[in-house]
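Person: I keep going back and forth on a fold encoding question. Show me how you would write down a chain together with its backbone fold. Please set it down just below, with no commentary around it:
Helper:
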Amino acid sequence: MTLTLDPPKSSLLEQLNSPPKASLQILGTHITNEQTKVIDFDLWVDCLKIVGIRSGQFLTNCESDCQSWNHSANGCSFEAILDGWLNEWLGDRTDGRSWTLSKLVSFPDHDCAAMKAHIERLARRIAYGGSVEVVFHTPSIEADALPEKHDVQIRAEWTFDCPFTPTDQVWNELVMNAMVDRKKGWISLNDPKRSYGMSPFRRAIRHGNNSRIVSQEQNANGFTLSVQQFSRWGCDGSP
C-alpha cells in the first residue's frame, strides 16, 4: 500500500501509527470429471497480531542520501530515526518537497510454513480430499523506482504473527466447521457461536453422506456394534 504525502512531517509520522492490513486465505478446491474446478470453501481471516515495524528505508534518486534501518540492529524506533533523516534531508529548504510512504508486511517464514502444514492437517481431520491452498495476502510495491513527481520513497515493513497457532483449539474448531459448512467469506471468533452437537469430522461425514456400515454384531449385553467405512469428500472426480 503506497500513500502520497506532502509536508508537514506530522502527516507522515501519523501514518506510521496506522499499520497496513494483512489477511489469511484458506481455499479448498477439487476438479470434477468434466475438468471443472469447484471451490469447496474459501475462508478469510484478518491478521491482527501486529508485532511492530521491523525495517525501513529512505530512498531518493541520490544514492548518497539513501538510508536504511533494521529493528534488530538499532535501539531507536523507526519513527525517531525517520524524523532525523527528514530533518537532514530537508535542511533549510523552503521549496516544495513530497514523498510517498509504502507500507509492507512480513510474516516469519517458519511460522508461515507451520501454519500452512497445520491447516492442511485440519482439512484431513475432517476427511477432506481436495487441494488446500493457504495464502497470506499482504500489501506490495510494484517497482523500485521512485514514483514520478516525488522526491523520496519511504518504506516501512511491519512484522505480523499468524492469526492463530496450532494449539488454539477454539480457532481449530472454527476453521474445521467453516470448511464443513462450505463457507465462502470471512470467519472470526466474534461470529455468533453455533452449537453443532457433534465433532467437525462427524458433521463432514453426515453432510457428505459418504459412510456405510460394513458390519454389525450384537454383544453380550444386547448392544449392536457397527463398523462404518467412510470415504473422503471433495476429491477430484466428485461432482
User: Anything to note?
Assistant: Confidence is low (pLDDT under 50) at residues 1-7, 142-147.
